[in-house]
């Protein structure tokens, strides 16, 4: 299998290259990046397997030339609200299967609209296959399947799990990363959630308190993300669906609300607000409370009684955000390893084509700790409750 990894020399792409190099069915890797020197240096670590190429995702002819002979193209280059849909359009035109880590809900809607064009070209595109979205979608499906009826479905992640290395990188950058700009984009303005049984535009950073099996009550705050767009397509009958953040330091969310207000009133641009995220501050505190890192949470009914259920990862791949995001992306390449069992053509969310148990069995050996399979890696539980919120 010949794969092209766009943004291959970046923080996310680099992990994808390293992970793909260990897959037996990958015969050639093209590390494509606007930074040719970085792409070539990374490719040189895998002689006979990887090649570095320069690519400009804003130059359609150049992009088409880079991906033309690939079996699968990975898009690890953001921000996706600028580059997601045009890159997928190019892959469809080239007739190349596609995987990405799109974490913006707006381009997710645009890309889902390309489903008919993908089917006509026989292209399978799985979008949003990172940590969140991606792993969280599959955890949400595991939680939902525990209940007889699902009314509310959340995906979430803890900001306590942002590693010290990630924090240092953010502070060291002259300019904010695509991830930081994305974060401020999805914390400001309005974002789409699923509310009262239909899509709705709301202001992010709405606080809630939920009962969480094994962890007890936790506070969560809404943030714009693709899970709220895609999960209601698969889990029918939902009244509410959103992506949320949690964290043990309430002051952090107060600070995010302040930045939200400055962006919404146009005192700061998205880029300026993202730069504020990376400014030196207090040393990272020890979390005040143990919280789930990546999780799915569902409320509804079980055995005729109100109940909540949850599934969460006990550990994640090493390497901070890069590992947590790009290892799952690369393992999704297994979907294409056997042409006879490849997913159907179209533009699809992870929960539409990936069996959670199959995937977590693949992920377990890559996570910190000694996990034999997905049953050990994924924690799960449910409790009866009179009031899910």
Overview of the molecule:
The protein has 2 domains: 2-131 and 321-366, NAD(P)-binding Rossmann-like Domain (Rossmann fold, 3-Layer(aba) Sandwich), CATH 3.40.50; 135-317 and 369-384, Dihydrodipicolinate Reductase, domain 2. It contains 16 helices and 16 strands. The chain has helices spanning 11-20, 36-43, 60-67, 80-94, 105-112, 115-121, 135-146, 164-172, 178-185, 227-234, 250-264, 270-277, 320-331, 350-353, 356-363, 374-377, and strands at residues 2-6, 28-33, 50-54, 72-75, 97-100, 124-126, 149-158, 191-195, 198-202, 207-212, 216-223, 240-246, 294-302, 305-313, 346-348, 378-384. Strands 7, 8, 9, 10, 11, 12, 13, 14 and 16 form a 9-stranded mixed beta sheet that branches. Strands 3-2-1-4-5-6-15 form a 7-stranded parallel beta sheet, sandwiched between helices. The mean pLDDT is 92.
In summary, what is this structure?
The protein is an alpha/beta fold and 389 residues long.
Say how many strands there are: 16
SS strand fraction = 15-25%
Q: What's the mean pLDDT score?
A: 92
In the CATH hierarchy, the third-tier topology of the largest domain is known as Dihydrodipicolinate Reductase, domain 2
> What is the subunit arrangement here?
single chain
CATH architecture of the largest domain: 2-Layer Sandwich
């Amino acid at each position: 299998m010949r794969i092209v990894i766009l943004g291959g020399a970046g923080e996310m792409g680099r992990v994808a290259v390293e992970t793909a190099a260990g897959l037996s069915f990958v015969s050639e890797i093209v590390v494509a990046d606007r930074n040719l020197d970085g792409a070539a240096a990374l490719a040189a670590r895998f002689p006979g397997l990887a090649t570095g190429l320069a690519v400009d995702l804003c130059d359609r002819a150049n992009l088409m030339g880079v991906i033309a002979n690939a079996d699968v193209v990975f898009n690890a280059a953001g921000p996706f609200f600028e580059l997601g849909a045009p890159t997928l359009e190019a892959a469809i035109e080239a007739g190349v299967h596609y995987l990405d880590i799109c974490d913006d809900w707006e381009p997710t809607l645009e890309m889902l609209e390309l489903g008919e064009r993908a089917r006509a070209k026989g292209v399978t595109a799985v979008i949003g296959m990172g940590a969140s979205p991606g792993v969280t979608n599959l955890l949400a499906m595991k939680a939902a399947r525990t209940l007889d009826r699902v009314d509310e479905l959340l995906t979430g992640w803890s900001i306590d799990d942002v590693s010290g290395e990630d924090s240092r990188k953010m502070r060291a950058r002259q300019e904010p990363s695509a991830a930081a700009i994305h974060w401020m984009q999805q914390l400001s303005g309005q974002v789409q959630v699923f509310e009262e049984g239909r899509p709705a535009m709301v202001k992010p950073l709405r606080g809630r308190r939920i009962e969480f099996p094994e962890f007890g009550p936790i506070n969560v705050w809404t943030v714009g993300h693709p899970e709220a767009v895609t999960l209601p397509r698969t889990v029918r009958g939902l009244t509410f669906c959103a992506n949320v953040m949690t964290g043990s330091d309430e002051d952090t969310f107060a600070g995010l609300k302040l930045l939200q207000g400055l962006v919404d009133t146009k005192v700061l641009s998205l880029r300026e607000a993202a730069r504020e995220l990376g400014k030196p501050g207090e040393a990272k505190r020890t979390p005040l409370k143990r919280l789930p890192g990546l999780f799915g949470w569902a409320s509804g009914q079980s055995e005729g009684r109100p109940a909540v259920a949850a599934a969460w990862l006990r550990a994640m791949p090493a390497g901070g955000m890069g590992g947590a995001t790009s290892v799952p992306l690369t393992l999704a390449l297994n979907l294409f390893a056997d042409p006879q069992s490849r997913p159907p053509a179209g533009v699809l969310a992870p929960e539409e084509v990936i069996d959670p148990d199959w995937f977590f069995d693949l992920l377990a050996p890559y996570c910190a700790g000694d996990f034999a399979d997905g049953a050990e890696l994924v924690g799960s539980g449910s409790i009866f409750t009179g009031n899910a919120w």
